[in-house]
Each structure stands twice: as structure tokens, then as C-alpha cells.
Design brief:
This protein is mainly alpha-helical. It has one domain. Helices cover 63% and strands 0% of the residues. Helix 4 runs antiparallel to helix 7. 45% of the residues are buried. About 1% of the residues have low confidence.
């Protein structure tokens, strides 16, 4: 790849400028200058300086200027937290924005499809390159994520392949061992590319099936691929895989059982999607709740059985089970990111507020539709960044696809569970209940 693109290099700063210009040129509505859409686009661009500060700060630390570099890193994380806080406020207000005029991008469907496909090809080529351009993911010690992040330990074991292949750091009590370096590279590239393709396809499918406008889906996927974040974090499995699972959970919202399976899988992988439980239960309250709960329970039970199979002792299984359900969220000895210079107890009020807000979404708004599901799910996953002790703020893929779909969505007030969720009469659960009802009269006679 580097032989074909001779001396090709696109550093993060240049990509941030190009991304901002392309975003404004393609999506900015110059005829409605003060529209909410335009403000949302400016907000997405505002994230870029924070990413660049972290990138260059980590580079300074590795070059030996630790004090100055760490200051840049902390300032970058703080910048992203401020920008994220503004978006949380905007997402929580989204359900009351009932007027959603159709504001199509400045580029037609064919141009958007070409742009999105070209971006996808370049990102995949970046993953496949033997010596990819220097990115933030290659500057961060992601092999420590196994010990520093709540969620499934087996998932973080695989996700650490993409950074620095080698033996696991202080990994004990499990049956697995790292394979050879060549196998690690192959696994990480395959998983990353599949997740990236699934993520883009899921966003297009949501636009086509649920927005009734395939151009909106293509525009959302293209905007996501265009952001500077994707240029720096494409190879991070722990970013891309949960994002793809969450997007497909939204894509399957009309079928509660698959949606529950996918949301349970996302919660088992990285823990934080479990805080979406009140919101999604409230959405399915009038139709589909039982199927959603069954799907989510089955998914979590399957992941627990997987941990039991991979563990070589009861103590190891208990430790991994505790990590998967967030029991280690405050017990880690060190952090990397904004919370690095703060005691672990400082995060307790933050997590308490996060839990209260997530629970309150089960009650407000009372009438929930697909638009509410999108915006509030994005708000919860964005709020999880403030609770994440390890690189909290950089896991933007967990919420960016849902945020972008919220920005570009039409009016979805009619997509409520009573009318949108598919009837469950043809499911195996309904058939089983029908058989039980038919047997009761026979037993009584």
C-alpha cells in the first residue's frame, strides 16, 4: 500500500482541517444559517481540537517532555468533556424539538454514496497497511485496558491486539494465551474491518428502513467516516465493535428479541450499555417488553457461560464476572486520561449522577418514539465517557453514530412501540404460551 501511495502522509492536524471544511461544504445549510443542524455540525467540529491536543500531548510525553505533554493531554480531555457536556444537554432536549424539517445535504445521493465509499476504502486501507500512518491509537497503552475498563475481559484481550502485540500484562487466572504476533495482526484487522463495515451498513439501513430516506442513512454514515476521530481510532477494536452492536440494536428496534440480544451483548462487552435498560424497557412497555427482556437475559447468560468456560478456576471466574458487571469500576489502581490526577473517589458523584439520569429516562419523556430512543441512547453513552477511568472521552464511537443519526433524523413521532414494533404472535414464545392456554381447558375437563 505504501509503495502505491508513494510518500503519502496525511497527519491528524491536516485531516482535522480538511474534515471541517468538507463537513461544512456538504452538510451546512447556508440558507438557514442559525438552524439547529448547523449548530450541531459546529459542535462536531469542536471535538477535533481536543483530539489533537491529546495526540500531540502523548507525542510530547514519548519524546521526553513529560510535564508539557501531560498538560496538553489533560487540557485535551477537559476540552472534550466540555464539548460533550454541551451535546448531552442538546440530546436531552431533542425529544421536545418536534419541528424537524427535511434538510437534505448539499450533495446528492450519488455524490454522498461515492464519498462514503471512498472514505470507507481509505479507512480499510489504513487498517490493512503494514505500516499505517501515525495515529493516536498507536500512542496509547491500550494493552492495560484489560485491567482498567469494566466489561468482558475476553473482549479486551482481543481488542488489545491492535495496539502492541505481545504477552498480556499481569494476566493470570485464565485459560487463554496470546497467539503469535502474525496471528494477532490478522485477527485484529479482520475484526476491525468487519465491525467498520457493519457500522456503516447499519447506519445506512436505519436511514432506509426507519427514516424512509436512504439518502439520510448514507449521509449519516459518510459524516461519521469523515470525522477526524475515525482517522485516528479506526483500528481500535474496543471502539468499533460496541459501536456496531449498538447501531444494529437500533436498526432491529422493531423486533424486541433481536434488539434485546444485541443490547445485552453490548452491555456484556463494555458494561455501560446496561444503563440503557430503563430507557429501552420504557419504550417497549406497551408492546414487546417480554421479548426484549428475554433477549437481553439470554445474551448476558451466554456471555457469563463463556466466561465460565474460559476461566481456569472459580476465583478467576468470579473476578471476571465482577469486572464484566462493573464491580471493578472504582477499584483500579491507576487511570489513563482525564481522571489520571484525581483520586478514584472523585468519580463517585459523577457515576451517581450518571445512574440517576439514566434511570430517569425510564420515566421521561412519557411517550417514547424512535427519535427518543436515538437521542437518549446517545446521551447515555456520551455520559458514560465521564465515568470511564481509562481514556474516558476518547471512546467517541460508542455514541457518535447515534448522535449523528439524531442530528440528521426526520420527525419520528409516529414510530412508537404500539405501531412500529412487530407483533409477537409468530414468535416461539407466543406459540408456547398458546399451547399452554389450549392445554388448560383439557386438563380441567
Amino acid at each position: 500500500m505504501r509503495d502505491i501511495l508513494f510518500e503519502y502522509e496525511l497527519n491528524p492536524t491536516t485531516w482535522a482541517y480538511l474534515s471541517a471544511l468538507l463537513t461544512i461544504g456538504i452538510y451546512f445549510k447556508f440558507g438557514r444559517f442559525w438552524s439547529v443542524r448547523n449548530l450541531d455540525l459546529i459542535g462536531l467540529i469542536v471535538f477535533s481540537p481536543g483530539l489533537l491536543l491529546v495526540f500531540h500531548g502523548v507525542a510530547k510525553v514519548q519524546q521526553g517532555d513529560a510535564q508539557f505533554g501531560q498538560g496538553l493531554v489533560q487540557f485535551g480531555y477537559a476540552w472534550m468533556f466540555v464539548a460533550g457536556g454541551l451535546f448531552i444537554f442538546r440530546l436531552l432536549l431533542d425529544p421536545v424539538m418536534v419541528r424537524r424539517p427535511l434538510l437534505e445535504p448539499n450533495l446528492n445521493a450519488g455524490g454522498l454514496t461515492f464519498t462514503g465509499t471512498a472514505l470507507l476504502v481509505f479507512l480499510i486501507a489504513n487498517v490493512l497497511a503494514e505500516k499505517p500512518p501515525e495515529r493516536l491509537e498507536h500512542k496509547l497503552p491500550t494493552q492495560n485496558a484489560i485491567l482498567q475498563s469494566p466489561g468482558c475481559a475476553a473482549f479486551y484481550y482481543v481488542s488489545s491486539f491492535c495496539n502492541k502485540p505481545g504477552p498480556p500484562s499481569e494476566r493470570t487466572g485464565a485459560r487463554w494465551e496470546y497467539p503469535s504476533t502474525g496471528v494477532q495482526v490478522i485477527i485484529s484487522r479482520i475484526v476491525t474491518i468487519v465491525a467498520l463495515l457493519a457500522l456503516a451498513l447499519g447506519m445506512v439501513l436505519i436511514g432506509y428502513r426507519h427514516f424512509g430516506n436512504i439518502q439520510a442513512g448514507v449521509a449519516a454514515a459518510s459524516l461519521f467516516l469523515l470525522l477526524p476521530y475515525m482517522g485516528q481510532m479506526t483500528g481500535r477494536i474496543d471502539h468499533m465493535v460496541p459501536a456496531a452492536v449498538l447501531v444494529w440494536a437500533v436498526a432491529a428496534y422493531r423486533r424486541p428479541l433481536p434488539a434485546g440480544l444485541l443490547l445485552g451483548a453490548a452491555g456484556g462487552l463494555i458494561f455501560y450499555p446496561l444503563f440503557l435498560f430503563p430507557l429501552w424497557c420504557s419504550f417497549y412497555w406497551r408492546r414487546g417488553l417480554t421479548r426484549f427482556l428475554i433477549g437481553m437475559a439470554l445474551s448476558l447468560l451466554l456471555m457469563v457461560f463463556l466466561l465460565a468456560f474460559l476461566s481456569d478456576s472459580l476465583d478467576s471466574f468470579r473476578a471476571q464476572l465482577r469486572q464484566m458487571f462493573g464491580g471493578t469500576i472504582f477499584s483500579q489502581p491507576t487511570y489513563s486520561g482525564f481522571w489520571r490526577d484525581y483520586a478514584w473517589a472523585v468519580r463517585i458523584p459523577v457515576l451517581a449522577v450518571f445512574a440517576v439520569v439514566s434511570a430517569s429516562l425510564g420515566l421521561w419523556p412519557a411517550q417514547k418514539n424512535l427519535g427518543t430512543l436515538l437521542s437518549c441512547s446517545a446521551a447515555v453513552m456520551l455520559g458514560a465517557e465521564y465515568c470511564q477511568g481509562y481514556e474516558g472521552g476518547l471512546y467517541m464511537a460508542w455514541y457518535l453514530p447515534l448522535l449523528i443519526l439524531t442530528i440528521l433524523r426526520p420527525n419520528l413521532e409516529d414510530r412508537v412501540a404500539q405501531s412500529a414494533v412487530i407483533e409477537g404472535h409468530t414468535t416461539w414464545v407466543a406459540r408456547l404460551l398458546a399451547r399452554l392456554r389450549r392445554k388448560r381447558p383439557a386438563a380441567a375437563t
